[in-house]
Write a structure and sequence with these properties.
Elements: H1 4-32, H2 50-63, E1 86-89, E2 94-96, E3 100-106, E4 121-128, E5 133-137, E6 140-141, E7 146-152, E8 157-167, H3 169-181, E9 186-194, E10 197-204, E11 214-216, E12 227-229, E13 241-247, H4 254-257, H5 262-265, E14 268-270, E15 277-281, E16 298-301, E17 304-307, H6 319-326, E18 330-335, H7 337-347, E19 353-356, E20 368-372, E21 377-383, E22 393-394, H8 401-405, E23 414-419, H9 429-449, E24 454-458, H10 467-473, H11 475-488, E25 495-497, H12 499-504, H13 516-530
Parallel strand pairs: 2-15, 18-21, 18-23, 23-24, 24-25
Antiparallel strand pairs: 1-3, 3-7, 4-5, 4-8, 6-7, 8-14, 8-15, 9-10, 9-13, 10-12, 11-12, 13-22, 16-17, 19-20, 20-21
Helix pairs in contact: 9-11
This protein binds 2-acetamido-2-deoxy-beta-D-glucopyranose (NAG) (2 copies).
Length: 536
Amino acid sequence: MDRHIPRLELVVILLVLSGFLLFILNMLTESSNQKCKTPKSSLRHRKSNPREEAKEERSLLNSIKWPGPWVQGLSVELSSDPTKSYFVIQGSSKQHRGGQLLVNVHMQNFLGLPKGHGGDFLIARLHSPNLGAGVAWKVHDHHDGTYTVLFPLLWAGVAWVEITMVHPSEAVAVLKRLQKEQPDRVFFKSLFRSGDLAEITVCNLCLPLNYKPLCNYTDPLTGEPWYCYKPEMLGCDTRINHYKGGYKKNLITEYEAQFFQSDVNIKIPIPASAMGKVTVLPREKGEANVKNNNISAGYYFHGTWRPLNGAVIQQFKDSSAITRCLRGKALYMFGDSTVRQWFEYLSALPNLKLLQLTLYSSYKMGPYMAVDSRNNIRVSYRCHGPPIRFSTVLSSELRYVANELDKIQGGPDTVVLVSMWSHFSTFPDEIYIRRLRHIRRTVVRLLNREPATLVVIRTANLQKLGPGSSLFNSDWFSLQKDALLRVMFRGLHVQLLDAWEMTLAHHLPHDLHPPHAIIRNMMDMILSRICPSEEI
Ligand SMILES: *[C@@H]1O[C@H](CO)[C@@H](O)[C@H](O)[C@H]1NC(C)=O
Ligand SMILES: *[C@@H]1O[C@H](CO)[C@@H](O)[C@H](O)[C@H]1NC(C)=O
């Protein structure tokens, strides 16, 4: 037995040594490879419970797990080819309104052979062009190369099935890699100026430590981090502005680029094997209503959005109807350019006077306010804090939504509208979770002090994608972030505005900034919520 002791010692020494090595390696990679992972709780809000937060984060990340990749270095012929794939409508070509339409999707590769695994990013829509009708529906992945969609049949008429492959699973694997290895593929800059001296340095949520001195602009209230390289000659307090520096190039290999070809495998429709449409007959007597309607927010009919939860949407056709609805109200809009579209919609009303709140910021940056003093209407817009890809925001105007919400009194005449997703697409999910957590905390506080405050959170939407933009703004990134947002605000007394479905169900092409027809429907939803029983 004696002989075993030295061996045991050796094992212990080896273990300690390897542990130490790992520790050193970790430190080295942490500092040089900037992981952008600091999901620490905020400084001020001591009430936060780190263990609960870590648990929530794990469960959130688990909920958006995407299958794959299965094989690395698969030749492109074996990857998913939308035009060789097909869908099959099950059942008769005539079905009844109120029923469900089952569609099976069979994915195949460029050789025309069935795929054996899932993970392709597909979207689905059922629509009747002549009726201005459309509904988006979830695609279920069976992880064997087949997928199903169970559309509700919500109107009578000829309805076409549209299944689109946004990305093959092989491209999603590349996006996952980028998400992990290139969190700073969009980078930012700041101008520093004092007297005759001016310098520009690179900024981001996290920058490598021990490389160059940093300026630390971490928000003291929320603890949201932000750093710039320290200018050579100027101090950190001479920062003037913030702007998008650019997009990193050469992010993917030639091999990976094959999975991102505009006419081949980015947003390409999948053909029907035989019939691509069904005739929906009027409801049969006694047929049940649409079941399970909580997985879709609504559908279009005659170009008008109809929520499936039974909410009545009024159409606010003219400015006097909108003015009557908004009389005495204050609307606060925070976020990215997709909430600014709502501001632009309202500030175009003839009676609203637009005020730019800073003299020197350029168009689009804000902050803005539009007022109608006769009717006591105030609508304001402010962009969210960094990372924001706008061109040139004054650094003094960089505000975090959470901090702004804390300044709002709230009440029955206050409406808060938040949209914040697009500028986070290139960052790890943990960063987005932390940001939403700060907003959620202040929303809860706002609703505790004034429960009658209306809070509307806008979800992400689909957009036009090409080989370049996919690496930064893919709908796949948006979908992942969007799923997190929905879960994090579930159960709170806030209204989720489902921009995802409203853009997917619509016949107009996907656009980062949805077209006016969709914005009008969104505004009608919001206004109907503000003035539910108003006679207009
Ligand atoms: C930046 O400042 C924050 C808050 O003061 C601090 O928690 C953080 O550790 C600082 N970061 C660095 C790299 O020193
Ligand atoms: C919505 O659907 C999910 C799963 O399909 C279900 O667990 C949940 O209870 C439903 N919620 C409502 C309000 O119907």
